[in-house]
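Same chain as my last thread, 523 residues:
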Amino acid sequence: MDTTIIVLELQQQVALLAARVNELLAQNAKQEILIKHYENQILLLKRQKFGQSSEKYSTGDCHQLNFLGEPENTPIPEPETEDITYSRKKRKGKREEDLSGLPVERIDHELPENGRGCPECGESMKDIGVDIRRELKLIPAQVIVVEHATHAYACDNPVCEENTGGVTIVKAESPKPIIPGSLASSSLVAHIAYQKYSNGLPLYRLEKGFQYDGVIISRQTMSNWVMKCAEIYLLAIYLMLKTFLLKESVLHADETTVQVLREPGRDPQSKSYEWVYRTSGCCENKIVIYDYQETRKREHPEEFLKDFKGFLHTDGYEVYHGLPPDIVIVGCWSHARRYWEKILKTIAKDKRKGTDAERGVAYINMLFDLEREFKNLSPEERYKARLEKSKPIADAFFAWADKLSALPKSPLGEARHYALSQQKYLENVFLDGRTELSNNRCERSVKPFVMGRKNWLFSNTPDGAKASSVMYSIIETAKENGLHPFHYLKFLLETLPNTTTGNLEALLPWSVSLPEVCRVTVK
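reply #2:
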């Protein structure tokens, strides 16, 4: 074979091998990127499952930045100190404070009169002191049957009967039943609603608990009682709370899923939604409203908020951004921070310093640090302080994020995209001193529903889901206003059957006319 041909073939093979090597190197590089990505995802999932869920952070976790966005490395001089002496009233121990609001039952353990003689000389001994030991005694709930015996009276005077053409009968007054023909009482229905909606106890567990106490009440009966009371009595309070809510000028909104088995025209597995609306920290009267809807479409918040004008705190869900212009959407800086924290948690602690993820978290943490400084300021003072101190930090953060180079689908690219796409709404916090930096307030109000859903799992019918919305609204609003949910529900169900619509305002959770038993002193 000609030597030239052999050389050419060898050159072709070398070229093919070189191309193959380059192809494998490129493939290997892609695989390394994917492996790193999946390692980060596994680490993040492990942290989400087993790590701390709180968003609290230590200022040492991320180095601070100055308002121009550069690392703050200037040493801080030690402050001068001085000795101050003062006197104060001696504090009670924590146990004494915890027990101070509870009734006390004292049991004295004494020697009998004939047993007080001195074992040495026989003389009578005197009491020289008492050793007090405390314990908490629980008195279990008791179910009793209450019989309302309503007496009727008839006049047996023949003259009266002759004059009136019949026997005169007068019946004694008695309280109206909350559900005619049933065994339901205000305390029983309040207990069922309190256990399910406040303590997350499913009705089948309540049913079993009643059985242990010798009471047979089916879960279907309990469900019917709650639904009827919600519709007949508590819906009026719910609608009045909604009216007061929409009069406010600063609100929060969020939503979560709920499964309703028997929705017309939908599969049992379909996702429905519980929308949550609540007042902000600047509002005098605290209100939380839950609104069940079949979908997550814009039409639902549009309908609910049609009479509202003002600031609405939300997450980045785009449905809120299409609301009427009278509603100014205020973005959530906590949501923006979570994208950067998500990346930071995938990096070993000793390698975090100087990373883009650390820098993004540090910017936003500075805003929250300042917000804590502004906590006790008036809205007007907070507005000015934000413009002076917080706004330059936010501007530096967005300028830095805009210049950041990152692949769109990478975690860093997603963090950058969220920040820049939400910039308009995140910056709205600087428009008014009454607004808040995050939507965490509403997320905390969503949590009781989510925790309860883990136990009772689903609603059977739309009517049941609507009744749950009413119950959650009244119970969570009661908690926000320092009321005990059980005692407040019991009071409402005792009072509403005999109350006219014009007197409902006196029954709202912030009313000064509520009985003292409804109030809780939270330490």
